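Notes from the 1:1 (GR / supervisor)

We went over the backlog. Supervisor wanted to see one worked example end to end before approving the batch request, so GR pasted a single chain during the call. The sequence is below; no edits were made to it. Supervisor asked that the structure be written out right there so they could see what the output format looks like.
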Amino acid sequence: MFDLLIIGGGINGAAVAREAAGRGLSVCLLERDDFGGGTTAASTRLIHGGLRYLQYGEFGLVRESLRERERLLASVPHLVRPLTFLLPVYADSPYGPARLRLGLGLYDLLAYDRSLPGSRPIPPREWPEWEPHLRRDGLRALFAYSDAQVEYPERLCLEYVLAARQQGAEIANHTEVTALLRDGERVAGATARDRITGAEREVRARVVVNAAGPWVDRVNELLDARGAQDKPRKPTLPRLIGAVKGSHLVFPWRESGPLSAGPRHALYSAARRDGRPFFILPWAGALLIGTTEVVEDVGPEPARCTPLEIEYLLAETNDLFPGIDLRPEEIAYTYAGLRPLPRASGPTAAVTRRHFVVDHARHGAPGLLSIVGGKLTTARSLAISVVAALSCAVRGAVCAVRPAAHTRGDCRPPFRRTAHRAPRTAFPGSVSDFAALREEELRAGRAAGLPEITAGHLADLYGARAPRVRALAAAEPELARPLCAHSPVIGAQVRFAVLEEMARTVADVMLRRTPLGLAPCLGHDAAPAVARLMAPLLGWDDTRVAAELAAYEAIVRERTAHRLL
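Structure output shown during the call:
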């Protein structure tokens, strides 16, 4: 019997697991696919305060996001790094220079404890220096402001997962919840099936947290419809999620050719067609463009970037940079995901990005909590809200589910030990002085015969855990060799992913433990080597190796489907 069962291993579920385990609770986390493989991986890969939320009066959310941005910059500097954005204002922009200046000033004010530079207008004489290829026609103002980028949000999610495991949480990926269990009226756990081995189990818990993101409603539909004395009982759980799809385009960066006429900085601009904001970002040696907002039903198939979305993003980018002339055939790959926004009517842009914790005691299902919303930036603060809500959930009480309700002493729960003691375990990769660590890894890498690009890559990806990967490479020279001419990833990282990071499939390693699948070859060249390294560690035969490679190729085909249009 666990104190807490968490369904969903995206950034929200992983953060809740870390927070709860750090406060002394026994925790089990189950993820249907792989950690961070859904909405987390399909994000725009930013850690930001939410500048555009100001226009909807979401001052509390912006302040919360800015505070959490600072925490992440300090705690995982190997993954989260500052990024300077440019914000152009044109004659036909939704907001004029004066209003943007006011908004940026408020943004700076709410970030009063920031470590990043404040915003500033860029004088017209400096525009060519900052962005020589930006469209000048109608350009009225250009502003610079600071936020942050997480190149690999999948790795950030994994840091939460590994921290939870270090604190005693039981963690399982590729494990699908097939039913929610009741003990009388109370939700008391779930049945689950390992999607790789087929093994089934029951997980009993005092509280179940549904952190399935866009699939929250689908998980709630699994609730056993029988109540006390095994009498049929009609579930009364409301629909909570109004999923919105966001799509992105990735272009390989080139020093010459069309992309040389593109941006020099990250850009945040309003689309000319509909006034929606979108980003053009330097990312992992590529150019990342997104995102869209399309209302979409949550189905079993993965979200797809459509031709209309490709046309929309290309048109807006080409309009901002007339010389870039991006075309569909130049896209390296696309990706899309669903945002788990609250179910609401009206324009999607106006739907709040705040998160909510719904206690289903009021719906006849005590012991079950659902998470609605959430962002990469605010995962930790969301987790604190969830842990605070556990007090009422375990008693079957109905409350406002706000942390303040618990700090006021309204609850005297069995989980009282969770109320004020924050987790003391840092992220596994945390380091106080990342620059010094990276320099030391470069020195140690040279001594071990590793190329400088590989040693720097290990520091950037693993932070304080980089020496452990380097030690594997030093012990077996075969593991020190790059797996692909297009990437600095080495064989030691594959072994480390399996032995230390719960990787169970080739796709886990290619897309979520390493950036091999993001290389210009999309991992085609490295996948066979990865499978060969994983096979003896996981007991795969030739048939299983072939199946793993076929499954990965199917993912690549999905990401490059635009080439067939």
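Supervisor's comment: DSSP finds 16 helices and 20 strands in the chain.
Batch request approved.
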